[in-house]
Design goal:
mainly alpha; 3 helices
Length: about 80
């Protein structure tokens, strides 16, 4: 007959599995975040900081639409090389 597993060992195994699952979940979340590849484009703007951010965002999407920049994609694609 197989002896029962002590409570301390079960607790340690549960903690190890929990930590592993949390680490895998965090890595999966981090890997799935959308990132933008390096891209150079010019934006002319005048106004406040919020208007500047909007102009930069519009400029980026215009560059993507024209094919000058790659669209954003999941971070893990950079890991593939």
């Amino acid at each position: 007959m197989i002896p029962p597993i002590p409570a301390s060992t079960r607790r340690l195994l549960l903690i190890a599995c929990t930590v592993t699952a949390l680490a895998a979940g965090a890595l999966g979340w981090f890997a799935a975040q959308a990132v933008r590849p390096s891209c150079d484009y010019v934006v002319l703007w005048s106004g406040t900081g919020a208007e500047q951010r909007e102009a930069i965002e519009r400029g980026y999407w215009k560059a993507v639409a024209s094919g000058d920049c790659a669209p954003p994609h999941a971070r893990w694609r950079f890991w593939l090389g």
